[in-house]
Amino acid sequence: TFTDASNLTGKAYVNYILSSKNIVRITSRRNSNVRLSDNGTNTMGAAKNNNTLAQVWLLSKSGSGYTLRNANTGRYLNDDDNFRTPSNSANTIYIQLSPNNGTNDAYIKLSEKADFSGLSCLNLGNDGTTLYKWSYQGDSGCDWSIALVENYTMQEVEENLLTLGGLSEPVPGKYYRIKNVGKSNYINESMGANVLACEGKDAEKLSQYWTLVQVSNGRYNLQNVCTQRYLVQQNGSLSSQYRTNVSQTNSFTIQRTDDATALTYYILDSGNVGLHCDASNVVVGWYSSNNNSVWGFEEADLDQAFIDAGRAQLNVYNDLVRNSATHKAAMSNLF
Fold first, then answer.
1. CB of 152 within 8 A of CB of 53?
2. From its phi and psi, is residue 326 left (phi > 0), alpha (psi between -120 and 50) or beta?
3. 37 and 122 in contact (C-beta within 8 Å)?
4. Cα–Cα distance for residue pair 59/149, rounded to 1 Å
5. For residues 5 and 12, what is the distance between their CA atoms, to the nearest angstrom?
6. Is the CB of residue 149 less than 8 Å from the CB of residue 23?
7. How far apart are CA 140 and CA 107, in angstroms?
8. CA 28/CA 109 separation, integer angstroms
9. How far apart are CA 243 and CA 229, in angstroms?
10. How far apart are CA 267 and CA 273, in angstroms?
11. CB-hemisphere CA count at 13 Å for 83?
């Protein structure tokens, strides 16, 4: 086991880099003046430049593979569209030493597949810019060198990524949309059943906004801004849909994840069980180890007129529900 890469070369150097989280640059074997880059729109090859974070990648282990997150945009190398379209969510890429290496070479290959088969490997085209999926066999365009970044620190990269997420540290009394990190959708309380589900962002929908009421150190009530009801604790029950109640008799722990690049949190009910967005986009209790149990808080500036209008709409809806039988009887007399 090596703790310092300063005296390492060749395959030992590459294995050291791949053994842990690092910030790296990835350079083409086909054109040694070209590096893997994210230009803000696409992933592509670009002329070497040591003074841009666009060519710096945060390498992290992901199961038997890795994720590569661009230090400038915060987006991930993604295997869709010939590796040209980066993703806002983590995407696993597989990395191995290339079989095209000579005795003293230490190039790597990157693939969407764990077995690197077929047209699955990251390839730089002859134009030095365009990326393709191709077979690594006998093609130097699929070979890349990987090196540690020396003129930026891990802290600088993590701090830059932290500013890109649009998320805030949750503070009692402020207003937030609560975003599921895994699915990129938001918690909403249904007006009728008062249960929680995840859905696409709707800035005009007051029931997507929440505020925190601190109960004790680290524990909070979550109150919906529209219904003014509080999230009900389920005491660690799994797969049960969360709902709200008019009284604030329950509280939750909001615990920061260990991701230094994002203000992301677990909303814990009991132990390691908390809010989770399931396959049907229902908010249920599940283990916090799942990516769809990770949440972010998007702070919102709501004026009182917007809040009053949303609550007025809710009152109209509730009135219709309460008096539905009367309205149906009145309508039946018209025909």
1. yes
2. alpha
3. no
4. 11
5. 9
6. yes
7. 9
8. 10
9. 9
10. 8
11. 28
Q: pLDDT tens, position by position, for the chain (335 residues)?
A: 445 788 899 999 999 999 999 999 999 999 999 999 999 999 999 999 999 999 999 999 999 999 999 999 999 999 999 999 999 888 999 999 999 998 889 999 999 999 999 999 999 999 999 999 999 998 889 999 999 999 999 999 999 999 998 999 999 999 999 999 999 999 999 988 999 999 999 999 999 999 999 998 889 999 999 999 999 999 999 999 999 999 987 899 999 999 999 999 999 999 999 999 999 999 999 999 999 999 999 999 999 999 999 999 999 998 888 876 665 665 565 55
Q: How far apart are CA 293 and CA 29, in angstroms?
A: 40
Q: Which amino acid is at 139?
A: D
3-state secondary structure of 22: strand
Distance, in Å, from the CA atom of 77 to the CA atom of 93, rounded to the nearest integer, reads: 8
Residue in the structure block whose two tokens are 């809806």: 317
* Nearest by Cα to 28 from 133, 126, 148, 118: 126
- State the virtual CA torsion across 3, 9, 14, 16 in degrees, nearest 10: -10
Phi, psi for residue 248 in degrees, rounded to 5? -100, 75
Q: Report the distance separating Cα 164 and Cα 119, nearest Å.
A: 33
Q: Check if the beta carbon of residue 85 is closer than 8 Å to that of residue 75.
A: no
Angle of helix 304-322 relative to helix 324-332, nearest 10 degrees, comes to: 60
